[in-house]
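Self-study notes.
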Amino acid sequence: MKDKLIVALDVETLKEAKRFVDILYPQVTMFKVGAQLFAACGPEAIKMIGEKGARVFLDLKLHDIPTTVYSAVASGTASCVVITPVITTSTVLAEGNIRVNLTPPVFMMTVHTKGGREMLEKAAKGAKEKARELNIEKPYVVGVTRLTSDPDSGDIQGQVLEAARLAKDAGLDGVVCAVGEAAMIRKEFGKDFIIVTPGIRPKGAAADDQKRTATASEAIAAGADFIVVGRPILKAPDPIKAVKELI
């Protein structure tokens, strides 16, 4: 479970985000930077998490014209890349004795499938081309299908499946969906299609503004690769205890 848990840093300041990262790392090694924190301090949050040694799920749900999304994904791919000189010999330091490692803090980011096929294709291309240019690992680009705050009404499963198919055909690595749709997507698109499930709540916990929630164990059983948990950990009297109980 530890390698599947992403803690959502939905807080107002960099100081508050750093406090949680300091408390939770290395028990938690992946953190979500969403719209709230990114609007407050931008790449500084990504830099802080990367310098700690953790990785970033950049959840901005990009939805704009294709060229803008291409550039935004490329920028996210390169954001706060850490350059670490590694001395390969103890003799005289020379240019040929240093290997430069590029470690991208952002390992996954989101775009919204409502942007359409051309936009999604540009997003996938932006990540791939920037990673190749920098010779770094390409981040996953996943498409948001429907928000977990949307009620479970009408043909929501059909809408989510259609959005997932669009994401797959456009070259994205996977999707974000509620746990209730995860098993359907896993069955339809196989084991190599990434599924990220937010809306995770312990049994009996308040749903807050979420409409389609589930427990962590239900998410894993449904085939989720990553689960995103925020308030149940951030609002807990003892966040590290909450993480251990979840795991």
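Second protein, same conventions, sequence then structure:
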Amino acid sequence: MKFGHYTDKGLPESEIGYRCPGWDPMPEGKKNVVVLGCSHTYGVGHDNDTHWVHFLSQHNTTRLRYWNLGQPGASGDKIVRILYGTEKLLFPKIVIVCWPLWSRRERLEQYPLSLTSDNEFLKAETKQTDKQNFLKNVFLVEKFAEKNSCNTFHCFADESYQEHLKEVNVFKEYTIRNCWPYWDKFTQRVPYNEPSMASDGQHYGVEHHERFAKLFLDYFGRKLK
């Protein structure tokens, strides 16, 4: 099925590509886990083994196969469009969404445009419309999961909107941004006091990503099976 920029079998075209193996032919024998998000999930500024989805993907590998579908600049709108494109392509059974800032939108013209909060097209948006657009996208993720018998897990890259999510699996305490620096009295003599940065100097570095994946798995690991 395909209408406009939406399809249930095919991912949106991407200049940078997707940071996951090829799916043609689709490997057999494991449940497919799709991980969706923005540049923090794609791993901009990171090697293939230093972003949080890599660390996550080491969990329960005998039963699970992970697909990193994060895209730089992605909004919640684009995340949903990517997810719906996996229905008859990757046949996911676990969906993990690391939500970006809710001020972002996707404008569907001849070619889709990813818009961030400073874009002229978004000057009329408000915190209330940001919230409602976010909740719309959460609803669409959950309806996809209901239809396809998926388990869903929600977390956040930058700001957390956990207080707006009820009756879903949401990682409530940490984001990729705020999980580092931190103080661990058992392993440190000197407290960490500065964020770690990736090679591009703009995105968070490996310490953020590795700790975020560990915390996420401490919270949800027993459900990822």
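Instructor comment on the second fold: Strands lie at 2-3, 6-7, 31-36, 64-68, 94-99, 105-108, 112-115, 151-156.
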